[in-house]
């Protein structure tokens, strides 16, 4: 049996290393692929087979993908030089990429027409959890295929959930991301208001990280706001695109979600303010500029004042 993994980015690298354990234990032949030769170097040093040509993976019994967006996923699978036209009926594609619900359903239908089973399995976690193998993986597709691949998924994730038919994994991930985005927008709007009216940024931040208004977003991102740290591998612009994908579903099924629509407007303000390349909590800088305040630790503000002087 041959297993391949395409996409060795921030999230894919750790996952691909964990999946390689199956070859070491004699369960399958294994190959990793990425268009960037530099991404393959650490795999080569570990004696893992590598390639920059996606067509070398087309004979895989199980082909795993972890790619940046829908456009690249389509290019790799159904594009003019994609793997699908070189695959045989009965082979399986397992896609960890975060793409739209409607896009996943479309790819699954195309694969099915060619006798290939496709399962959308988007992930939730951080680069550290990919290395630890403790991701949450949400799966949509054939349930029998899910149970077949679950031992391999268990190498990469801790919470492995079968959510339903094709697209169900992506829909679950989209809902999760939108809830996170809403939480982030709420404290980004309200923290500057408190500081404008005289509240201490650190004490207010402590409340929002521990009291009833707390969330994963506040606990994770408010400390970064207070430190003036807005760098992250996943940009605000990409977070907005997740909501765009959800909005496509809402328009198709005529579902009104005013809270999500309001959050999208908050993100639009931040994007127009030039925050798109930073992480989503950078949207707070729009409201800081609007109110003429900074939501920062006292030590950060003192250091900033020294630089100015």
Characterise this structure.
- Pfam families: NAD_binding_11, NAD_binding_2.
- This protein is of the alpha/beta class.
- The chain has two domains: 2-165, Rossmann fold; 172-308, Orthogonal Bundle (N-(1-d-carboxylethyl)-l-norvaline Dehydrogenase, domain 2).
- 52% of the residues lie in helices and 13% in strands.
- It has 14 helices and nine strands.
- It has helices at residues 12-19, 21-24, 37-45, 70-77, 101-113, 127-132, 143-153, 168-196, 201-210, 216-227, 236-252, 258-272, 284-291, 298-308; strands at residues 2-6, 29-33, 50-51, 62-65, 92-95, 117-120, 123-124, 135-140, 157-164.
- A six-stranded parallel sheet has the order 3-2-1-4-5-6.
The succession of helices and strands, N to C, reads EHHEHEEHEHEEHEHEHHHHHHH
Give the total of beta strands.
9
Runs with pLDDT <50, length 5+? none
Structural class: alpha/beta
Percentage of residues in helical conformation: 40-55%
- How confident overall, as mean pLDDT? 95
Q: How many domains make up the coordinates?
A: 2
CATH class of the largest domain: Alpha Beta
**Overall 3D geometry?**
elongated
How far from one another are the termini? 66 Å
Strand order of the largest sheet: 3-2-1-4-5-6
Radius of gyration: 22 Å
CATH architecture verdict of the largest domain = 3-Layer(aba) Sandwich
Describe the largest sheet.
Answer: 6 strands, parallel
In the CATH scheme, what's the topology name of the largest domain?
Rossmann fold
In oligomeric terms, what are we looking at?
single chain
Number of helices: 14
């Amino acid at each position: 049996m041959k297993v391949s993994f395409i996409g060795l980015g921030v999230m894919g690298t750790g996952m691909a290393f964990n999946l390689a354990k199956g070859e070491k234990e004699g369960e399958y032949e294994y190959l990793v692929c990425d268009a960037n030769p530099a991404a393959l170097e650490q795999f080569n040093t570990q004696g893992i087979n590598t390639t920059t040509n996606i067509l070398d993976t087309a004979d895989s019994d199980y082909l795993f993908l972890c790619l940046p967006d829908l456009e690249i996923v389509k290019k790799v699978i159904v594009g003019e030089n994609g793997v699908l036209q070189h695959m045989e009926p009965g082979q399986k594609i397992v896609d960890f990429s975060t793409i739209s619900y409607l896009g996943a359903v479309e790819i699954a239908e195309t694969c099915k027409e060619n006798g290939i089973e496709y399962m959308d399995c988007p992930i939730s976690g951080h680069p550290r959890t990919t290395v630890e193998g403790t991701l949450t993986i949400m799966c949509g597709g054939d349930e029998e295929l899910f149970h077949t691949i679950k031992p391999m998924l268990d190498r990469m994730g801790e919470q492995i959930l079968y959510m339903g038919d094709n697209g169900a994994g992506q829909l679950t991930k989209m809902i999760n991301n939108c809830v996170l985005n809403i939480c982030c927008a709420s404290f980004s709007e309200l923290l500057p208001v408190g500081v404008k009216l005289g509240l201490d940024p650190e004490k207010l931040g402590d409340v929002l990280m521990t009291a009833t208004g707390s969330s994963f977003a506040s606990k994770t991102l408010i400390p970064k706001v207070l430190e003036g740290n807005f760098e992250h591998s996943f940009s605000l612009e990409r977070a907005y695109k997740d909501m765009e994908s959800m909005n496509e579903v809402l328009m198709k099924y005529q579902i009104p979600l005013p809270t999500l629509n309001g959050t999208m407007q908050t993100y639009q303000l931040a994007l127009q303010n030039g925050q798109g390349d930073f992480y989503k909590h950078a949207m707070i800088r729009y409201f800081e500029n609007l109110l003429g305040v900074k939501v920062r630790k006292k030590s950060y503000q003192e250091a900033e004042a020294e630089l100015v002087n």
